């Protein structure tokens, strides 16, 4: 979200707080903003609408984020592991770059791509690596993994000299479910019509109520 989204964001979160009998204080609103500001306004509003309809208690920022991601972190981790399994036939000499940066970060913290393949050499070894992967992946999904942590994973392939020029191995890009990918988000345009207003609720009226 961008600065221009703050007012509509405050209205959305205040509506959720008051639905669950809580006051929309400046401190509470700041807490939700700090926990969700990297998301898009429209997806936060959609998640809040879903949570109001399905939750019996006030959702905390982490639960709003989880609703934006479209599933529990455990479900996301299981889906991520299936994509790792699909990439394993590429072998340890290939460098790989998962579109889901949390996969790159998880495999890196567990020793890297060649180590991942070596650690899954037997059914028993794969079981233990999978457990460690699922746990670490969920942590990265909750905390984020910007910068070098989510960079591509180098394989064992060495750079080669071709026509007098040193050529580094080109990583194989591994696509993933777009709803799960930890990709850069495009901020909502200030002029975008808020989802809560399109649902038949006057944004202007709510703004006056909480102002």
Explain the overall architecture.
The chain is mainly α. The protein has two domains: 3-70 and 191-210, no CATH class; 73-174, no CATH class. Helices cover 53% and strands 6% of the residues. It is built from ten helices and four strands. The protein has helices at residues 6-19, 26-36, 41-54, 61-69, 73-87, 101-109, 113-119, 123-143, 195-198, 203-210; strands spanning 96-98, 160-162, 165-167, 172-174. The strands form two sheets. A two-stranded parallel ribbon has the order 1-4. A two-stranded antiparallel sheet has the order 2-3. A hairpin with a 2-residue loop joins strand 2 and strand 3.
Low-confidence stretches: 182-211
Give the termini distance in whole angstroms. Answer: 20 Å
Please identify the structural class as seen in this structure.
mainly alpha
Strand composition percent: 5-15%
| Element pattern in H and E | HHHHHEHHHEEEHH
Mean pLDDT across residues: 81
Rg of Cα set: 21 Å
Q: What overall form do the CA principal axes indicate?
A: elongated
